[in-house]
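Need tokens for this chain, all 111 residues.
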Amino acid sequence: MKGEGAAPGNYGYTNSGYSVHEEQNERLAESLRTKVTAIKSLTIEIGTEVKHQNKILSEMDTDFDTTGGFIGATMGRLKTLSRGSQTKLFCYMMLFALFVFFVIYWIIKLR
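Here are the structure tokens for all 111 residues:
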């Protein structure tokens, strides 16, 4: 019989290699726990980053909507000016805007 001569409570598994397989299973289970913990923390970090990026995108959307409104209003005013007899004033304003644009571009380029 298999368990004869074995220590009490051992059931003869020492001789059959059961404890070797059990130890290997424990090592593999611990390795799996470590990997699952690492993946869980990585997933939590990814979720946090996604929430942060969504917040930034939402703020940018609001800013672009606001800027679009300002540009629309400005274009409306420019159209009103161009329809009137003030085309000379309109040309001066456009030249001034181009001048300011090039000055800012030049300042940024020097940095």
